[in-house]
Amino acid sequence: MKNSLLKQVILFVLLAACAAFSAGILFFDVVILKDQVNEISTTEIVQEAFLVITAVLFFIQSRRQKSQRGGFILAAGFFCCMLFRELDALFDMIHQGAWVYFASMLAIYSLCWAAFTPKTTLNGLNALVANESFPILMFGLVIILVLSRVMGIHFIWQAAVAGDNVRLVKNLVEEGIELFGYSLCLLAAVRMSCSKLALA
């Protein structure tokens, strides 16, 4: 009973730290660096770093857990595709929208691996879903894929903010929410990597 309570208190502190960290990075960008939170900003760089670490953690699990490899490769491939999307400005230097081609190739590779090893794919996905950190991962993805997109709709901020600060406010809200989501996904991936359940 005492251990369960302590675990929940620690989890609350970790989640609060993720929220505070996200706000702190935005503060650093806007107040210290006087940045508009554009494609090249501290916020974007931290997002991309979190995606790299999350993908690498799942890839490491795929190497360690042969019986669950397909599922972890799918997870690693998914976060790598998200990374390519975040790096779209870099890929645009090759060709406009080039990130789609790289993400598509990686997605096909991951799906083929999963299809050719269906047992390890199901084992891995079951381990992910059964893990106590999976709700944090899922909540992080909802924040990234849904909430940040909805809150980033331009005409909402046009109606709410006067003057030339519309883009700054929009970027601030959208990228800040995204960063919080990525921090939750990273937290979940770290906890899964350390969890006995994920390694079962």
UniProtKB/TrEMBL annotation:
PROSITE patterns: PROKAR_LIPOPROTEIN (PS51257). Keywords: Membrane, Transmembrane, Transmembrane helix. This is Transporter. It comes from the Bacteria. The keyword Calcium does not apply. The chain crosses the membrane at residues 9-28, 40-60, 72-91, 97-116, 136-159.
